[in-house]
């Protein structure tokens, strides 16, 4: 076993448990590495002896199994390094693929904290925040809402309260890179691997630079009319933080499709789930059923119709994504069975010709 205190990987999150899990690969002459960024069949990674550029020799038809930023991997060293295996992930941020296929897309792996970054320079979009929170909860990491550009908000306290109402059980922090507000508090809250998730123009890269204490991440201007920015971050990238832990900056997300987030929806809309337990009927759809606790809460002003509609919409989207995945898996099983049957027929035909 390697000496963790001397390992260059310790500042990237390498632990005794990972070292133990890597024992088999080490015996095969491979070295551990963490993927910093992926680029068209190649990746930048960091090893115990420093950064390397390696060819990705791991292939899977399922994009969920493809190497991504944050993955721990086994690397074959040498003049032409190759990434040959991935270690099991402790967490992963997964959204539906941009192509709307039944496959998911992994945005980052082995993440401890998902910082959902929301700009207060423009009006908040509650539905989008709920989507991002579902993505964060589904990853298995701890969600955190970071409200940026508080110095440009007309009423920061009201914005803070609004975000908190949309995120039961999630910490919400007001920040401003321009004034330095709560940057030290945010730094203290982060540990392990943190990923910044949000729209273009939300201030992710500026926030990342403030946490890093240097202008290491590219930033750009935003449009005044809608607060949207250009993709100054074009790929996911992992950078060590000065006080320990690592930061993953991601390109701004235009589409936030859910892949398989049933459990996370229950967490995002925890108050609706709690209310539904009080409905007279177990299969209550919360429309016009008698004894509906959810409708009663709306009538009492304790829950908004918008919130319930958002919950329903994300439930429908998640169910559609799940059905697409099930259909793909059934088709793949059918294709495998057809291939086996075809092979057996060919074998029997060959035997008949030989007899």
Automatic annotation (TrEMBL):
Its cofactor is Zn(2+). InterPro entries: G_CP_dom, P-loop_NTPase, Ribosome_biogen_GTPase_RsgA, RsgA_GTPase_dom. GTP binds at residues 148-151, 198-206. Gene3D superfamilies: P-loop containing nucleotide triphosphate hydrolases (3.40.50.300), Probable gtpase engc, domain 3 (1.10.40.50). Keywords: Cytoplasm, GTP-binding, Hydrolase, Metal-binding, Nucleotide-binding, Ribosome biogenesis, RNA-binding, rRNA-binding, Zinc. Residues 109-254 form the EngC GTPase domain. It comes from the Bacteria. Its EC number is 3.6.1.-. Transmembrane segments: none annotated. Monomer. Associates with 30S ribosomal subunit, binds 16S rRNA. Belongs to the TRAFAC class YlqF/YawG GTPase family. RsgA subfamily. HAMAP family: GTPase_RsgA. This is Small ribosomal subunit biogenesis GTPase RsgA. It comes from Streptosporangium pseudovulgare. The lineage of its organism: Bacteria, Bacillati, Actinomycetota, Actinomycetes, Streptosporangiales. The gene is rsgA.
């Amino acid at each position: 076993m390697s000496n963790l205190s001397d390992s260059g990987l310790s500042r990237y999150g390498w632990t005794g448990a990972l070292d133990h899990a890597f024992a088999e690969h080490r015996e095969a002459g491979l070295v551990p590495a963490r993927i910093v960024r992926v680029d068209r069949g190649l990746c930048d990674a960091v090893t115990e002896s420093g950064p390397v550029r390696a060819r990705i020799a791991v292939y899977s038809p399922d994009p969920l199994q493809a190497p991504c930023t944050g993955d721990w991997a086994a690397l074959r060293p040498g003049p032409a390094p190759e990434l040959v295996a991935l270690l099991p992930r402790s967490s992963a941020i997964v959204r539906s693929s941009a192509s709307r296929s039944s496959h998911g897309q992994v945005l980052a792996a082995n993440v401890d904290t998902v910082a959902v970054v929301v700009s207060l320079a423009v009006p908040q979009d509650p539905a989008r925040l709920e989507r991002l929170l579902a993505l964060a909860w589904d990853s298995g990491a701890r969600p955190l809402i970071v409200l940026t550009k508080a110095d440009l908000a007309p009423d920061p306290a009201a914005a803070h309260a609004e975000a908190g109402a949309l995120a039961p059980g999630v910490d919400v922090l007001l920040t401003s890179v321009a004034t330095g507000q709560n940057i030290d508090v945010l730094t203290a809250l982060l540990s392990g691997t943190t990923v910044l998730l949000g729209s273009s123009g939300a201030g992710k890269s500026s926030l990342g630079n403030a946490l890093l204490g240097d202008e290491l991440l590219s930033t750009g201007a935003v449009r005044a009319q809608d607060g949207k920015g250009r993709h100054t971050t074009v790929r996911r990238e992992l950078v060590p933080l000065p006080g320990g832990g690592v930061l993953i900056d991601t390109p701004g997300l235009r589409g936030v499709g859910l892949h398989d987030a049933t459990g996370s929806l229950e967490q995002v809309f925890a108050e609706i789930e709690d209310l539904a337990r009080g409905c007279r009927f177990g299969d209550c759809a919360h429309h016009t059923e008698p004894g509906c606790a959810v409708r009663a809460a709306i009538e009492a002003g304790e829950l908004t119709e918008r919130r319930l509609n958002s919950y329903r919409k994300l439930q429908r989207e998640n169910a559609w994504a799940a059905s697409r995945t099930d259909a793909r898996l059934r088709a793949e099983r059918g294709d495998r069975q057809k291939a086996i049957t075809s092979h057996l027929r060919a074998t029997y035909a060959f035997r008949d010709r030989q007899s």
